[in-house]
Amino acid sequence: TSPLADNVSANVIGLGLGTIFRFWSYRRWVFPEVVSAEADELTSA
Q1: Helix (H) or strand (E) holding 2
Q2: Phi, psi dihedrals of residue 34, rounded to the nearest 5°
Q3: pLDDT digit string (tens) for 1-31?
Q4: What is the DSSP string of 6-44?
Q5: Domain locations in the chain as residue ranges
Q6: How far apart are CA 45 and CA 43, in angstroms?
């Protein structure tokens, strides 16, 4: 394969993996799902 094709495919794969990791890490540590007692009371009322 050509160096251009290798470079383009590596950048696409790297960008995709980076995006997936960033999405997962933000969901995990920055914006975790917090279930509070007040939220349970509001949904059951």
Answers
A1: none
A2: -115, 120
A3: 899 999 999 999 999 999 999 999 999 999 9
A4: HHHHHHHHHHHHHHHHHHHHIIIIIS-----HHHHHHHH
A5: 3-44
A6: 6
Residue type, 45: A
Quickly tell me which residue has 């990791």 as its tokens.
21
The residue behind tokens 């470079």 is 7
Residue entry with tokens 């509001």: 42
Two tokens at 28?
A: 């995990």
Q: Which residue has the tokens 């094709």?
A: 5
Q: What is the pLDDT of residue 17?
A: 97
